[in-house]
Design brief:
Helix content: 40-55%
Strand content: 15-25%
Oligomer: single chain
Strand order of the largest sheet: 4-1-5-8-6-7
Order of helices and strands: HEEEHEHEEHHHEHEHH
Largest sheet: 6 strands, mixed
Structural class: alpha/beta
Radius of gyration: 19 Å
Number of helices: 9
Distance between the termini: 32 Å
């Protein structure tokens, strides 16, 4: 068997195992409202980031709940503190198809404004691979794992090659979703788009599926915050995010 054939074979085995492990007929989306509880996030103009992110996240969820075939996982639905690592674990345990974290930006200068969407920075790619290996290692605790996962072994080199391919695919998928979100922002709300950024954000590194972190606007900017704190503004932002997720799901699932 050639090296190329082995790589393709390993990738197919890995995909089969991932599809078997935590299999669901629905497209699972994890919605993560940034901050919460004792963590207020940024605070400007009598607004707390944790409150604005939760309000928008719940509105995104309300729209997605009307879409057949989408199941939702929330890291929080109330004003509670959830550790960063637990947010990732919640999504990983659910074998979610997407992880979407919602935040507000802030700057000491009041002139900074606009929305931007972050994807995983390549400088931390190895960390994501280690998480994938760790999450998959739980299969050894199951009875008949050899038969169930058809030779999938996260300790074998050929399986690691498959995981690396999946990781690259996740980044490509994350960028695809980020593009859809920012395009919708540009077309539907007054907050300008600052585009897509790639940074080593821990919560994106620690999740094992495509994911984005959205800065929906600057809480420190009077124009942005007037939109962020209004019902109409929140609905417009939520609709832009939800429609991007629905479009991504329809194209990929």
């Amino acid at each position: 068997m050639s090296k190329k054939t082995k790589i393709i074979f390993a990738f197919l085995i890995m995909m089969l195992a991932v599809n078997t492990y935590g299999q669901s007929n629905n497209f699972i989306v994890t919605l993560d409202a940034g901050h919460g509880g004792k963590d207020d996030g940024a605070k400007y103009f009598d607004n707390k980031e944790k409150d604005l992110t939760l309000a928008v996240t719940l509105k995104v969820g309300k729209i997605l709940e009307q879409n057949y075939g989408i199941s939702l996982i929330y890291t929080r639905k109330t004003d509670e503190f959830i550790e960063l690592r637990e947010r990732a674990k919640i999504s990983n345990r659910a074998s979610a198809n997407l992880f979407v974290s919602i935040h507000c930006n802030a700057n000491k200068s009041a002139t900074g404004n606009g929305s931007e969407t972050y994807v995983m920075g390549m400088s931390r790619a190895n960390m994501n691979l280690e998480v994938s290996k760790a999450e998959n290692s739980v299969i050894f605790l199951e009875d008949n794992y050899q038969k169930t996962y058809k030779g999938f072994d996260p300790n074998k080199p050929e399986t690691l090659i498959g995981l690396q391919i999946l990781q690259e695919s996740n980044l490509t998928s994350s960028i695809d979703l980020a593009n859809k979100i920012q395009n919708n922002f540009s077309n539907s709300i007054a907050i300008k788009s600052r585009g897509i950024k790639q940074e080593p954000l821990w919560v994106l590194d620690a999740t094992t599926m495509p994911g984005v972190l959205i800065e929906i606007g600057f809480i420190s900017n009077k124009n942005d915050v007037s939109i962020l704190e209004s019902e109409d503004g929140q609905n417009s932002i939520a609709t832009a995010i939800a429609n991007a997720i629905i479009s991504y799901k329809n194209e990929n699932f």
